[in-house]
Amino acid sequence: MRVTLHGANHNPVAGKLWAYSVRVTDATGHPLSGTVDTDFVVTGLGVVGKETPPVHRLKNGALNDQVTFPPQAAGTPITLVTVVHTSAGSVAVGWPVSVTK
Asked: Domain 2-98, what fold?
C-alpha cells in the first residue's frame, strides 16, 4: 500500500481553513477504499486532538479535506497525522506544521 499526505504548506494560520490531501493506492497504483483518522500530535505529549468528524471515508483512494487550527496552537510544533485503514492494512503518515497567528 502506498500512502501520500500533502498539506497546503507547513505554516497554517490560526483560525483560517488549511487544506490537506491523502492518496492511497495498492502497489500497482489502483486506488484503495478505506477510512482515514486525522490526529494532531505534539512531540512529548502525543495526540492532543482529533479532527471533527474523527473518521473520513476514502473516495476512489483519495481524501481532500480542510481543518482550522485554534489560536492556542500558534508557536507549538504540531504534526498532522493521518492513519489510513484499508483491507491491505493500516499506515500512519505525518505532515509537520508550525501554526502562525
From this structure: Immunoglobulin-like (2.60.40)
Question: What pLDDT, on a 0 to 100 scale, did the predictor assign at position 39?
Answer: 95
Q: Tell me which long-range contacts 29-32 makes (C-beta under 8 A, separation of at least 24).
A: 29/2, 30/61, 31/58, 31/60, 31/61, 31/62, 32/1, 32/58, 32/61, 32/86, 32/87, 32/88
Collapsing DSSP to helix, strand or coil, 15 comes out as: coil
DSSP state, residue 13: B
Query: Can you give the residue ranges of every domain in the chain?
Result: 2-98
pTM (whole model) above 0.85: yes
